[in-house]
Design goal:
single chain; alpha+beta; Jelly Rolls; binds fe (ii) ion; about 325 residues; four-stranded antiparallel β-sheet; binds 2-oxoglutaric acid
């Protein structure tokens, strides 16, 4: 049988305390994170039915007429526009989305319909947050950091957010759904419907993530890349829209508190005689620069701020 293109890791050894299984899983994860920062997980603790239900309900929601969706427009004071959003007309990203912060956040604006949607979104969020913590713990161990290091550094869960996305069908002339990028946060978890379209760049080639029910995609993001001084890679990924149908997905961003200082850790620099590859920065500063890419897009996309903004080049 052909090798699956993106490795799929069974996380059950981590809940069953199967030491041998954990070791094997960690080898696969370490390799994937060192090369390109993407892998898939099964037995991750989020019920498959819940993931399916979330996709079904988001499909119902996004198929409503605009005026119904616009009833969940964001309140103006939120740090990110929680609620229903469309991309600006000039954006190359042809999607619409519903964004939420943790259940109970006062920024959240939920649709009234379909009636079960809010409860399912809150459930999915809570479950993905638990899986995010588990993955962070595994990444911590794969990086050889002291136990609980990342958990303690990244203890404030109020910055996490999730988006339900709907991508419009490709046209004859273009199929960009989400332009290539790296996520700014720590770890992202994604699931997509059977239309597929998510791709990751490995050795200069775009590798499609073949959709598989109940499977979550793990995406290592910029904060982990900086802390580990490039030992683990922030995945470059994009979404290509399929023809003839819309495509639905969810992305959960296991984030970091804005006032945290981010810089390569001593473990990956002075302790091993390596120079830092990034200068330190406050996370909220980087978030603002990234947000500005969206609100004030530069004329050439190459001028968008990425994590390379903090590179030490000498
Ligand atoms: O829709 C997807 O599959 C991925 C979304 C994504 O990469 C993002 O929102 O940053
Ligand atoms: Fe992304």
């Amino acid at each position: 049988m052909a090798e699956p293109l993106i490795p799929t890791v069974d996380l059950s050894p981590f809940t069953k305390n199967d030491e041998d299984g954990k070791k094997k899983a960690m080898e696969v994860i370490t390799k994937a994170c060192s090369e390109y920062g993407f892998f898939q997980i099964v037995n991750h603790g989020v019920p498959i039915n819940l993931l399916q239900r979330a996709l079904e309900l988001s499909k119902v929601f996004f198929e409503y007429p605009s005026d119904e969706k616009l009833k969940s427009s964001p309140a103006s004071n939120a740090p990110l526009p929680a609620g229903y959003n469309t991309q600006p007309q000039q954006s190359p990203d042809k999607n619409e989305y519903l964004l939420m912060f943790p259940p109970g956040s006062t920024f959240n604006v939920f649709p009234q319909n379909p009636p079960d949607f809010k409860r399912v979104l809150e459930d999915v969020f809570s479950k993905l947050r638990e899986t995010g913590l588990l993955v962070e713990t595994i990444v911590n161990q794969c990086l050889g950091l002291p136990p609980n290091f990342l958990k303690e550094y990244n203890h404030d869960r109020s910055w996490d957010f999730m988006v339900a996305l709907r991508y419009f069908p490709a046209t004859e002339s273009e199929n960009n759904g989400l332009t290539e990028h790296e996520d700014s946060n720590c770890i992202s978890l994604v699931f997509q419907d059977e239309a597929g379209g998510l791709e990751v760049r490995k050795d200069g080639e775009w590798i499609p993530v073949i959709p598989a029910k109940g499977t979550l995609v793990v995406n290592i993001s910029d904060v982990i890349q900086v802390l580990s001084n490039n030992k683990f890679k922030s995945a470059t990924h994009r979404v290509v829209r399929p023809k003839g149908r819309s495509r639905y997905s969810f992305a959960f961003f296991y984030n970091l508190q804005g006032d945290k200082w981010v810089e390569p850790l001593p473990h990956f620099t002075k302790d091993i005689g390596e120079s830092p590859k990034y200068r330190g920065f406050q996370y909220s500063e980087y978030l603002q620069l990234r947000l500005r890419n969206k609100t004030h897009p530069p004329t050439t996309p190459e001028d968008e701020i990425r994590i390379t903004h903090y590179n030490i080049t000498s």
